[in-house]
Structures are given as C-alpha cells and as structure tokens.
Design goal:
single chain; mainly alpha; Serine Threonine Protein Phosphatase 5, Tetratricopeptide repeat; Clathrin heavy chain linker domain-containing protein 1; CLHC1; Clathrin_H-chain_linker
Length: 483
C-alpha cells in the first residue's frame, strides 16, 4: 500500500510552470548568447576568453533580473570569476614554464656551439701565429742578406795618387745597379712565394685562411680585382660564409688596421657581395668606420638594394647619402635627403655647396616630386634667392608625368596667401606674362576656375601688364573670368 502510494506520488508531480515573462527573459538570454558567439566568431572548442566574457555578462543579467536570489548568485559569480582567474593564471604559469623549459633544453646546444666556436678561434690563432713566425723569419733573412751585402761592398780606404786619373763613375754606378737588381730579385722571389702560398691555401679549400693571407700580403699584391674574381668563382656552401665575403671582410679589416682606405673599385664589389648576402648591418659598419673610398656606383648599389628591401629603405638612403657626399655626387646626396623627407636638410646641404646648377635642381624635382620641395626651390631660402623660377617650374612639371604637382604647387601657395603668390609672380623674372597666361589657361582646363581667376586678377593688377585687344586670341582667356 505504501509502495503504491509512493509510486503514485512520484507520477503526480507536475513540471514547474514558468511565467510568460520568465520565458521571454530566457529567450532573450539564449538569443544574446547565440548572437554574441556569432559576432566574436567562437567555435565549440573556444577561444575560452570570449566564452568567459559572454557568460559573465549573462550571469550579470540574471543577477539583475532575479531579485530574490541576488546575494546567492553574486557569491556564485564571485567564485566563478575567481576560478576563471585561477585557470588563466595557471595557463600563464604553464606558458612561462614551457618557455623556460625550452631555454634549458637549448642550453646544451648553445654550449656546444660556443665550444665549437672556441675551437675555431683557437685554430685561427694558431694559423696567425704560424704566419707571424713565417713573416718574422722572412724579415730576419732580408736583414741578414742586407747586412752581408753591406759588409761585402765595404772596401778599405786607399791613398790616391794625385797624378793618376780620377776613376770613372761607371764602375760605382754599375755596383749600385747590381745591388738594386739583387734586391729586386729577392723581393720578386718573396712575392712569388706569397702567391704560391695563397694558391696552395686556395686549392685546398681553406678559403678563410686564403682570404686573410691575401689581404695581408705585402705591397697589396693580392688586394686586387683578379684575386676577387678568383673568390667570385667559388660557389657558396649551405650553412657556411661565402668565400668572397670572407675576402671582402678581410680587405676592409686590414684597411682599418693600416689606415689606408679600400680603393673605390674594391669597395663597390665588397658592398655588392655583402648586400647579396643580406648583410646590410655589415655595410653599415664598414661605412661608419670611414675606411672606404667611394664612387657614385657604390651609392647606386645601396640605393638599388633599398628599393628591394623596403623595410630598410631609410637606412639604405642614409648610407647612400654618405657615399654620394664623399665621392662628390652631391645632387644624388641631396636626393637621398629629400627621399628621407629631410627637405630642410637637403636645402641647407645644397646652399652650402654654392655650385648647384639649374639642371641639378630639375633633377631633384623630377626624381622626388613634392610640393614642399618645389616650394623651397621656388622661393627665397634663408635670405638667398629662389633656385628655380616658379612659372618655369610649373610649366616644366605640366609637360612631364608629374603634372599633378604643377597645380598642387599653385594651390598650396594660394591657400597660404594671395600676397605671397603675387609677390612670387612679380619676382619671377624668368617667366613672362604670356607664360603666366598659359598657366592660367591650364588651371581653367583642369576646372581649377578659382585658381585661374586668381592668377588673372594678379596679372591684371600689375600696371600695364595685361591689355587684351578684342580680336586677340588671349581674349578667350578672359571668358573664363566673366562666366
């Protein structure tokens, strides 16, 4: 009886009746969750951070909605937030420990590389010591030979008979000639020995030793383009430094040591080699040490690399500017400053030189067109007259691919002040009224009516500057003004 009653009681329990307002609230909560998940692009697997933010906001809405259980739900939310924060902290700790573990795992490899490098340096030191010993022995041989020759040529003084003829100078001069020939022969033998030693190292594939040996040879007998071509012929080996780069580094290093700049032709090849291996920092070091001789080609090579490596373009322009300045290619040095946005610096640089030609200014405008640069060139600069005629520059630009800058220039000046534009037109002795009328017509053609009218008004304001007879073709120009 009791069992049956219990069973009946179980089945007689009715499901909870949810009020309509609560249903609407639950639907809005579900809708909010779905829309937020779609907005942030969450997947079923995560990311957990977005899920946490969404459900935290839902929790807050429920707390605000349910007044009776607000304290309990607030406590639960605080525990929930504390739990999430503990999980985040655990993840950060795990990430940190994982990174630390990687570092510890790499220490053995790093130590191995350091030991390997120590071995290489010790071997290099031994090679240098052997070369030093060999050089000292050669010097001793030369000194011994010179001492012996000096003793042999020394003869005891004899009393001369005044009645005898004075001996001719042919014998003494012949003796000195023989001495010079012998010395030259010894030097030639030493040079041949150096060349043979270099060829021996090179043929064995000991390119680093060969490069150092060639760079340190006396009289620079192996510091030339022929030796460089020999290193060029050696192909690169993966994971090893290019033999040509070894030779270039040795050349520059020895130039720093002996305080003789590397010749310009070898400088160009060294820069080309370093940049082909993407060693811009090496080129930067060489140039800042001021131990290279430059020509225009060296600057061109650096500029060309900057156009390829856009990330380091500004550094390349700065290095190229140094190269151009040192070799006297001043217009290209000024262009590098302009391309870096250093217009004021370029103007100061130009006026320091005092021999920039009109063609040089046109070169800057063509290769780095900008309103700021053109304005600086067409107006006074620190009390010095304008470098270019405003009108002639506008007409020149209009007939090139940079025609857009011709109108922009006039608009920029007019925007600043009508008086400035008027004064620049009056002071422009290289551009006559007819040419300014042509410029105004260009403005009208490009629908710059206001600018064209301004130019016409400036021209007509000058005493006797512009008189248009009725049948003159130029009268058509005024039609734009009175439309």
């Amino acid at each position: 009886m009791s069992t049956a009653s219990i069973g009946m009681n179980k089945h007689s329990v009715l499901p909870p009746i949810i009020p309509e307002s609560e249903k609407e609230f639950l639907d809005s909560i579900h809708g909010y969750i779905i829309s937020e998940i779609e907005n942030v692009g969450c997947t079923k697997e995560g990311p957990a951070e977005e899920y946490y933010v969404i459900y935290r906001n839902v929790f807050e809405r429920i707390i605000e909605h349910v007044k009776a259980y607000k304290n309990i739900l607030t406590t639960i939310k605080q525990e929930y937030d504390a739990f999430i924060e503990a999980v985040k902290k655990g993840q950060r700790t795990a990430f940190y420990l994982h990174g630390k573990l990687k570092v510890l795992a790499c220490e053995s490899t790093t130590l191995m590389y350091y030991r390997k490098r120590i071995t290489q340096l010790e071997q290099n030191i031994k090679k240098i010591e052997r070369n030093s010993t060999r050089t000292e022995n050669l010097i001793k041989k030369i000194r011994t030979f010179r001492t012996t020759a000096a003793v042999e040529t020394t003869t005891p003084c004899k009393k001369l008979d005044p009645s005898k003829a004075i001996p001719g100078s042919l014998v003494s001069s012949g003796s000195s000639i023989f001495e010079r020939d012998h010395t030259q022969a010894t030097e030639a033998a030493d040079m041949i020995e150096y060349i043979e030693r270099f060829n021996e190292l090179f043929s064995r594939g000991q390119y680093e030793s060969a490069a150092i040996f060639a760079a340190n040879c006396p009289r620079g007998i192996l510091r030339n383009e022929e030796t460089m071509e020999k290193f060029k012929a050696v192909s690169s080996v993966k994971g090893k430094i290019l033999p040509l780069l070894m030779y270039c580094e040795a050349l520059v290093s020895t130039s720093m040591a002996v305080k003789h700049p590397l010749p310009a032709n070898l400088t160009v090849e060294a820069i080309k080699c370093a940049l082909s291996e993407k060693r811009l920092e090496l080129v930067m070091y060489w140039i800042t040490q001021q131990k290279l001789s430059f020509n225009e080609e060296a600057g061109d090579v650096i500029c060309a690399y900057g156009e390829v490596d856009k990330h380091n373009r500004s550094q390349c322009l700065a290095l190229a500017q140094i190269a151009y300045s040192r070799c006297g290619a001043h217009k290209k040095a000024a262009l590098c400053l302009c391309k870096q946005g250093q217009i004021s610096g370029a103007m100061d640089y130009i006026h320091q030189l005092q021999y920039f030609s009109t063609d040089d200014y046109i070169y800057l405008v063509k290769n780095c067109p900008s309103v700021q640069l053109i304005r600086c060139l067409t107006q006074e600069w620190k009390g010095k007259p304008a470098a270019l005629s405003l009108g002639a520059t506008v007409l020149f630009l209009y007939n090139t691919e940079q025609r857009i800058y011709s109108i922009r220039l006039l608009e920029d000046i007019a925007k600043e002040s009508r008086n400035i534009l008027e004064q620049m037109i009056i002071n422009d002795s290289n551009c006559n009224v007819e040419e300014w009328k042509e410029i105004a017509e260009i403005c009208f053609q490009h629908k710059k009516i206001k600018l064209g009218k301004l130019l016409i008004s400036i021209l007509t304001a000058q005493d006797g500057v512009l008189e248009l007879p009725p049948d003159d073709d130029s009268a058509k120009l005024m039609e734009h003004v009175f439309m």
